[in-house]
Fold:
Amino acid sequence: MRTLSYLRHPPSLETGDLSTTLKWYIAGFSERSEIQVALHVPETIGPLPAEYKLVLFRIMQECLTNVHRHSRSPWAAVRLIRKAHSIRLEIADRGKGMDLHSSSDSNVPPGIGILEMRERVKLLHGAFHIDAAPGKGVRVDLNIQ
Ligand SMILES: Nc1ncnc2c1ncn2[C@@H]1O[C@H](COP(=O)(O)OP(=O)(O)OP(=O)(O)O)[C@@H](O)[C@H]1O
Ligand SMILES: [Mg+2]
Structure:
């Protein structure tokens, strides 16, 4: 239980730099899942409200969990880009992908992960986007001003 809550809400998230927390989480994720993660984050992401850090951290976590559970990809990439007035996060894999345009529930079973990510970004007035196709992997990206 302690390990679980620690993973869900690492103490360094509130006080520390987001880049450091992402690096720490991804190192553990790669070890547990044996998925190789290419991480592109600046050395420091700079000051950011705790609320934003939590949203970005949770989305990265949900996306990597999805890669692990659904994609069968041995590889993922996480990219965090800070611009003067915005922050962008991308998570991509090269796994089995999914059909976003299919109306059939058998292709994309309903989950709350993607809905929740969308909601979290919307609350911060950001943009959320998923790019996916069968056999071509999945790429999730979001932009928050
Ligand atoms: N990286 C991925 N590769 C392939 N399919 C994916 C990927 N991410 C999501 N999916 C598909 O989209 C569906 C919805 O994802 P979502 O995260 O919303 O739900 P979930 O992971 O099934 O359940 P949970 O509510 O626990 O997150 C998944 O069930 C899966 O079929
Ligand atoms: Mg999920």
About this structure: The beta strands are 36-40, 75-82, 87-93, 127-132, 138-144. The helical segments are 2-8, 12-15, 18-33, 50-71, 113-123. Residues 62, 65-66, 111, 113 surround magnesium ion (ligand 2) (CB under 6 Å).
